Amino acid sequence: MSSADLDLELPIIDLSGYISPTKPGDRDRVIAEVRDAARQYGFFQIRGHGIPLSLQRDLLKCMDNVFDLPVEEKLSMSFLQNPCRRGYEASGMSHREGDPLPDAKECFFIGQEDAVVEQAGFFGPNVWPNLPDNDFRNPVWSHYQHTRDLGKTIWTILIEGLGQPAALVNEFAKRPVVPMKMIRYPPHSTVQPGQLGIGAHTDFGGVTILFQQPGKDGLEVWHETKEEWIEVPALEDVYVINCGDMIQRWSGGAYKSARHRVINKVDGQRLSCATFWHGDVHATNPLRPDDPNKDTVGQLLVKRFRTQYSIDKEMIALVGAAAA
What we know:
The protein is of the alpha+beta class. Helices cover about 25% and strands about 20% of the residues. It has a single domain, classed as Jelly Rolls, CATH 2.60.120. The chain has helices at about 15-20, 25-40, 55-65, 70-75, 135-160, 245-250, 295-305, 315-320, and strands spanning about 10-15, 45, 85-90, 105-110, 175, 180-185, 200, 205-210, 220-225, 230, 240-245, 260, 270-275, 280. The strands form 3 sheets. An 8-stranded mixed sheet has the order 1-2-11-8-13-6-4-3. A 4-stranded antiparallel sheet has the order 7-12-9-10, with no helix packed on it. The protein has a two-stranded antiparallel sheet with strand order 5-14. The longest helix has 25 residues, at about 135-160. It is globular. The chain starts with 11 loop residues before the first strand and ends in a 5-residue tail after the last helix. The relative contact order is 0.17. Keywords: Iron, Metal-binding, Oxidoreductase. Belongs to the iron/ascorbate-dependent oxidoreductase family.
């Protein structure tokens, strides 16, 4: 990307005008800015989101705490051995079809905390590492709650941007699927030639809320019209939002789901954390009730990930034959 192409910088939107408006027109302005960014890029950045800066800094420490555990201890928490796909993903476990090499990243997954496994593993208990609560569980859970709530807010703004009532979000938010993925990328100098932190892909579902370690750049977003990668800087107290394939489909293409990738461009390791707000497992398109495509959130999830990870047969059976 040429540094002169300033029009290819993702906009930074101040959400405080929507969350806590102080004058007439504040909410409408934010709705319009989000709508325009989601239409043009499928991505935008946000300030005024309400997530404390102190919590963001604590989250960075927590991620280092879990990823610095001995390899054997991390592998004992493997998400591939967990019915809810919670826990640890080692480097090389994720390999998208078409990518020459698996991703170099390692991850740790949590989700909504439920006492027992339900809905074939869409809901259930988290896996928590053997660390003091204040060194991992408490800050991580607090960040999860903040970003879970923020995801619903973003969905609501997107819905209003289509001229629909804000209350429509409640039709598919009774018990939404909201996983959170903490990620650590190795130094670029240590990966194999051609191996990326995360290869180019679109997100499968709804709204993604991404926290990036400040000063550790790496995210790039593909602009289809100009056929160029937009570099997204990792700025303090700024989160990155993007729409997934489900939003593009449900909105009839009004909002984009853009390809993106991560290349760790700095010395040392890089941390990020993504929360994915999808909606209820059995929800179909609430924006267009007459949509002939009746795929549910669960069906779309299984379709997307069964070739990337091993998906349990019980999960496939739960979401129905359409996912086969």
